[in-house]
Design brief:
Elements: H1 3-29, H2 33-73, H3 89-124, E1 128-132, E2 138-141, H4 143-149, H5 153-156, H6 168-171, E3 176-179, E4 187-197, E5 200-209, H7 210-253, H8 258-289, E6 297-300, H9 301-311, E7 316-320, E8 326-329, H10 331-348, E9 354-361, E10 364-370, H11 397-407, E11 411-416, E12 422-429
Parallel strand pairs: 7-9
Antiparallel strand pairs: 1-2, 1-5, 3-4, 4-5, 6-8, 9-10, 10-12, 11-12
Amino acid sequence: MPFEKQITRLIAWLFIPCFITLCSVLYVAKLNLYLTLLIISLVFLSACVAYQLLHKKLQDQFVQLGNIIEALNQGDFTLRAKSLATDSAHSQLLREINRLADTLSSERFEFKESQLLLAKLLKEIDVAILACDGSGRITLANPATTKLFSLSENKLTSYNLHELGLAHLLSSQSNALVSLSSAQGGRWHLFKDQFRDKGEQQTLFILSDVEVLLSREEQSAWKNLVRVLSHEVNNSLSPIVSISATLKKISSNADLDTELKEDLNDGLTLIGERANRLHGFINAYRSVTQLPEPKLETIKLAQLLDALAALLPYQIDIQNRLTDTSLQADPSQLEQCFINLLKNAHEAAPNRPIQINVYTEAGYHHITIQDQGPGIQNQANLFVPLFTTKQGGTGLGLVLSKQIVQAHGGRLTLENTQPTGCKVTVSLPN
């Protein structure tokens, strides 16, 4: 039985003894029958009206409280109960409900702020974050993950880890180095943890590109080393050049044997020339440490490659131009990058054509440069600035090209191909 009916029924049972007592008193008083009936009717009618008013009052109060609690349950925290400033239990109940609504409204506002902050962090952070349920279906993916796999968030959440080639993440340990089957490739640091969402167990994966971080630290270390070496060497070369020129002038005016004077002048000339060459060599390395920020503009990739093919005296075969492909890049820096790579490919096999192929995958434009030379002999030192296998080389070409590509948010990789040759892949973001 409803609570308000229980209260009104209890009041009715309390009224019955009073009504019987009234009837007994009227009977004993031996009043006129019509007067007795009138009094009994008025008392009964008053009791019925009071009963109905009490029942309606209780019902209205419970409906009001029910509406407020229902609104709170639906997330509407604007309704408030109107209470009197008294110490009655009813007023205290209404005040506590209003206080509950204020608390829930404040907590909801704070929760919304936290959600917006978390969403902004997930959007801006350059780390791939995804989650999956117990069946391996992806339930969460941030923009870095969608860019990595070149899929929208709605489409990505319709896949599972097996379909994306990420099933090995389930068995991998947290803080391990893993590889991905996406076009990005490379080595990735994996952080894995468990959490619950709506009562369901979820697995969280955070993937950080280790190669980019290591490459940045490596470049920073080489820049610092080259900066120190260039400063120290240039400080020594300047007096050497000056002293050798002075000694040459003195020997020219000195009274010496002709043959001795020629040998002395030749030696001093050689010292000066070698010092100047070393000075130029060091300055070339300094240019690597002072690469300016790229000035981005929209360029057509096909036009850039066609212009390079017409400019360079090499046999270049562009197999796929993707004429509609455009990207944001610094044209002068990108041209210098491809000139260095094409020059390396030509030097590896001077009498054979260089093949260029362009394709788009996983949110990146990929440009491959394939030569038919002997391949890479020492892959461990490819991007070491002071290392070269070419006679008269400086070891700057690949280092500078890699820095240019990374400054554009891309990646440069090299690999040997079968049966011979080397393939360089430049991956630039769409």
